[in-house]
Amino acid sequence: MEHKYQLAVIGGGPAGLAAALGAYAKGLRSILVIERDKELGGILNQCIHNGFGLHYFKEELTGPEYSGRFIESLAGTSIEVSLNTMALQIVPGGSAPDAGRRVQGHRIHAVSREGYRIIEAKTIVLAMGCRERTRFALAIPGTRPSGVFTAGAAQRYVNMEGRMVGRRIVILGSGDVGLIMARRLTLEGAEVLACVEILPYPGGLNRNIVQCLHDYKIPLYLSHTITEIRGRRRVEGVNAARVDENRRPIPGTEFSLDCDTVLLSVGLIPENELSREAGITLDPRTGGPELCETMETATPGIFACGNAAHVHDLVDFVSAEGERAGAAAADRVLAGTTDSAAALRLCNGEGVSYTVPQSIRRGSSGTDVFFRVRGIYRGGAVRVCSGGRDLAAFKRLHMAPGEMEHITLSPELLRNAEHEITISAGETV
Predict the structure, then answer these.
(1) Which of 115, 193, 204, 426 has its CA 20 to 30 A from that of 95?
(2) The dihedral of CA 287, 290, 294, 296: what is its sign?
(3) Among candidates 104, 82, 103, 91, which has minimal Cα distance to 31?
(4) Is the pTM value of this prediction over 0.85?
(5) Are residues 16 and 125 in the same domain?
(6) Taking a C-beta distance cutoff of 8 angstroms, is the pair 34, 108 a contact?
(7) Residue 335 CB neighbours (<10 A)
């Protein structure tokens, strides 16, 4: 079966829904949202805690409440939703034989209970989200007992399936999902013995460190790691140790914790297998596609947003990014032209790990740039340079790797830039 749309959005989470609604608000009426799960909402369906929506909706919501706002907004629109549908392949326009006919855009091969589908779309928004790193990405020594979960899997078991994952818990890593699960499991009666972080600073938001660890007197071991998981049929305990500046365990600092469960909260990876197979240029720094200021990839007509583009800390920014990508996709369809303006390249300088977007087309009317810093800076600043000249500096009271930063580059600044713009972070201006 073949179906034609002006826009196809892959992913029905907060990024994908915002993209579809953003395109609809711009005037597109032939829009399809492809979602592999049985319902819309994405990962927010299992995030029953509050703290969402403070930026986007100006009020505090739970995860299901937040996604519910977008799902309700679909009512009365012509946006189509295809649930239980897995996108298998993206074939960019012009990259494959067209069977004797002209393809107006790109094709998505997908499968559902109804069968195999080929979806033709003038534009595509990639909003597949991200996945968690597993134990085997870390190569933790030990046997392979039951009781080792990623934090997100444990969150689904507890919040959606109504099942406890264990009673004595050790958490490796201090990502936000792991911190939130430390509190959630404590409230359900489990004992969280410790949160062990290999870096010298926490990986999650400071508010989660305070509300999920400090408030419940759960110890946080910075510059530590788990060196072994003990147990054969079920986890019986872990060995941990302090690490040096090269993240290697320091002999003589080992200690043991007796537990029945280990949760892993050691980072997220943008889902981009579809993007990679389609030949879309990826940025090794973010794990997502390289993007310009409209969230368009290097493949014309294909956009990306949310955690598929880069891992966010707040869902509010995910939605805003999705809305921007959807609106830009609509502009491309309605204008029917390709913007071929020369682009300024964005580079990460000292203290910055990546920037999104990775390029800005000249003539842009100002652009928000998102990035993460490599360390903790108090009383620091963000510096913008081009051609060896300082173009701007933005003071910051506090910056940390667990909290995404952003600045706005004005049209005047962009006009004064040369071929590249470098963004750096440090303690002083």
Answers:
(1) 115
(2) negative
(3) 82
(4) yes
(5) yes
(6) yes
(7) 9
pLDDT tens-digit series, residues 238-272: 999 999 999 999 999 999 999 999 999 999 999 99
The beta strand positions in 85-201, using DSSP E, are: 86-91, 106-112, 115-126, 130-132, 148-150, 168-172, 191-196
In Å, how far from its chain's centre is CA 427? Answer: 27
- Span 49-85, pLDDT tens digits: 999 999 999 999 999 999 999 999 999 999 999 999 9
Q: Hey, what's the torsion of the CAs at 284, 287, 291, 293, to 10 degrees?
A: -110
**Pair (400, 288) in one structural domain:** no
Q: What DSSP designation does 212 have?
A: I
The DSSP code for 213 is I
Q: Are 197 and 291 in contact (CB under 8 A)?
A: no
CA distance 133 to 267: 6
Whether residues 362 and 310 share a domain: the answer is no
Residue 136's pLDDT is: 82
End-to-end distance of the chain based on CA atoms, in angstroms?
59
Convert the pLDDT of each residue in 25-42 to its tens digit. 999 999 999 999 999 999
The larger pLDDT score, comparing residue 152 to residue 139, is at 152
Query: Do 280 and 202 share a structural domain?
Result: no
Please report, for the domain that includes residue 108, its CATH number. Answer: 3.50.50.60
Strands 420-426 and 377-386: antiparallel
